[in-house]
Amino acid sequence: MSFNIALSGIQAINEQLEAVSNNIANSSTYGFKSSRANFSAMYAGEQANGVSVGSLTQNIGTNGSVESTGRSLDAAIEGRGFFVTRDSQGTMSYSRVGIFAADNAGNLVDAAGRKVQGYGPTVNGTLGTMGDIQIPTGQIAAKASTGVNFVGNLSADWQKPTNTTFDATKPDSYNMVKQSVLYDSLGTQHTVSQYFVKTGSNSVTVHYGFDGAAPTATKALTFDALGQLPAATTSGALTLTPTNGAAPINFSVDYTGTTQFAGEATSTTNSTDGYASGTYVGVELAADGSVVARYSNEQKQTVGTIALATFGNEGALTATSDTSWQANAASGLALFGTPGAGLAGKLNTGALEGSNVDITSELVGLMTSQRNYQANSKVITTENQMMQALMQAL
User: Fold this and answer.
1) pLDDT per residue over 111-157, tens digit each?
2) 81: left (phi over 0), alpha (psi -120 to 50) or beta
3) Where, residue-wise, is CATH 2.60.98.20 in the chain?
4) Which top CATH class is 147-272?
5) Measured between alpha carbons, how far is 12 from 77 in angstroms, rounded to an integer?
6) What are the tens digits of pLDDT across the range 285-335?
7) Whole-prediction pTM value?
8) Cβ neighbours of residue 84 under 8 Å, at least 6 residues apart?
């Protein structure tokens, strides 16, 4: 009987050593969760019959350290939750490893090639349906400009031009000229020139010229005694008619925030809302889980939002690898949401979660296992010596 009890102890310790060895070997594996062997006594009726490893428990609830990578498609979860992926058979897997990439079909996939699950683009404040995240890898169409945002300081030190008859070809007939870029429906650039003419102590008239043509439209800007314009001052409706077959550009110039202070005349903002067509150049993750495609025209489009899954009993998940799990009846159904919403943790982009293995504790456990192994081996040796002494006495 002692032989069997000691042998069961050695077998159980071997299983414990496998768990400890696996923990140590994966101490640098991203998203790895350490395991612990749980011993349980064996009985034959009321008689003790040794020991066995009753179960292995993964320490899923303890997060590993966050390690910066600088890669735009790496992400670590700070808090609870799992990334959700789907393999070619449609099986859903859950992982803490946020290493993503775009495959040649435009799908966002993880390091194992499984398709990352998330929500489609938001429409009117509502998330799209959940499924594979598709990244448009072609071109995006041009967007015609609808407005120019101009903010600057039209110096109060300006004097009225010496030439009182405005003429865009004569610099002595205006105080300053600024050009803004517009885009038509085909993505072609056009220029709107703004000629600023001091007309009174608190007033400036703007003349608008399109693509080098003589100005045909004007707007009077009147400042108050504090050098401020009335709120939401715009040029009113302006129209530029391209000659390349594109639709007319109907736009306005917004001067909100423009001032008339003494000193140098400046322009701090001169931007438009239109852009030319662009080709896909890459994709990145935002901290809120948004998947953002980048294009050559410096535009960005949110093409989806990564989903995170939480469970009522995440410790009961079935491990399919050292860093992936599947749901079961004990873990409960997955609750899906976006990063930072509900129980789900926030994302730390450009970083990955390291292993939660505590090397010091594992080495201490290794030494404890060694002593237990030696003790059980000593029991077998002693039992063998006793049996030999008994045989010699007979």
Assistant:
1) 999 999 999 988 887 888 999 999 888 888 999 999 999 999 999 99
2) left
3) 147-272
4) mainly beta
5) 35
6) 998 999 999 999 888 989 999 999 999 898 889 888 889 999 999 999 999
7) 0.73
8) 92, 93, 94, 116, 117, 118, 307, 308, 309, 334, 336
